[in-house]
Design a protein that fits this description.
Helices cover 84% and strands 0% of the residues. By secondary structure, the protein is mainly alpha-helical.
Length: 186
Amino acid sequence: MNNTRRFSRLAATAAASLLLLAGQAHAANLSKEVYKGAKADLETMYQAQKKACDAHSGNAKDVCVETAKGQEKVALAQLEYNYSGSARDEAKLYQARADAVYEIAKEKCDDATGNDKDVCNKTAKGEHDKAKADLKLAKKVSAATEDALEAHVKADYKVAREKCDALSGDAKDVCTASAKARFNLR
């Protein structure tokens, strides 16, 4: 198979795997009991998927096992994020997705030989590196956005406080307290 067809097949497989592993990335704030039950269910599902891989042989079995591992890691990361809702766990979820797609693609490259295998592995590594770079960029954009929002709130609060300075007595106190409450300042 030529390099272009192999790359197209790898890209399509990676995209399909990513969609399969994607799920929804939002926090649901699960109770501890639901979290524990879901974690146990995921382990049971992983064991069943891994056992189903016994029907395959050779590299097909390896790909099947790697797919099961990837799905488990992504599902566990999704569960953690749903439980905590933290930005840190969300980043771990996206990292788990990128890693799973990469590991599956690498395993599929074992079917190729020679230069085709090298190209397949380099393509998989390149896609993984791009996904990691995108995650790093997203973290920086998120931090910059938070900083900008905080700066906007502080600037708006300063304007509101300045308007309060034109008042006196109880009116000024009420205005100042209202400004603090509006901008969530203590």
